[in-house]
Fold:
Amino acid sequence: ILNVEQSPQSLHVQEGDSTNFTCSFPSSNFYALHWYRWETAKSPEALFVMTLNGDEKKKGRISATLNTKEGYSYLYIKGSQPEDSATYLCACSGGSNYKLTFGKGTLLTVNP
Amino acid sequence: GAVVSQHPSRVICKSGTSVKIECRSLDFQATTMFWYRQFPKQSLMLMATSNEGSKATYEQGVEKDKFLINHASLTLSTLTVTSAHPEDSSFYICSATTGGAGNTIYFGEGSWLTVV
Structure:
């Protein structure tokens, strides 16, 4: 059973600020890390799937890095906008299966 | 991205009755679907994994006779909560994938179940 931790639990930033949050996980038996963006009453939106140590992915103003040796991933948002307000979830799978263990999420609020 | 639709989004049922939640992959064939439950301020907890045409694999502590999962086609999985109790009231959400441990897993919108 994986233990996935996300920090901070919640975050308030001003429009235009850049921000980042952390997902930590056991480095042993790691296979893949998934980031999701989840707005209320909508489906969690898949942002990134990362498997390789040192991997860095980018989607618009959002990017993520992965360090499998030390067991963490960072999600960065550049120039936050109010529409970025959501809960950001990370999840890990261990071994070569698809089962995801989720963190509790980071709730981001971007104030205009 | 791919679309997964879940229905109903909200349901209220009486104690002792059964309720069915459907999860459909609308634009891809999902070889594997997952069902999660989330209690307030907790993380999504995996309940079971279902592969098309075979029996679901339940996580430890999840009663398979209470939470019946059927994955009869590559686009549909159902979760039936049988003999519902108020403590079954929760948020249930499904996800689906075409397979492959590094592939994207797509989620439905979730269903709020209230048992009265």
Notes: The mean pLDDT of chain A is 93. Chain A touches chain B through 27 residues (CB under 8 Å).
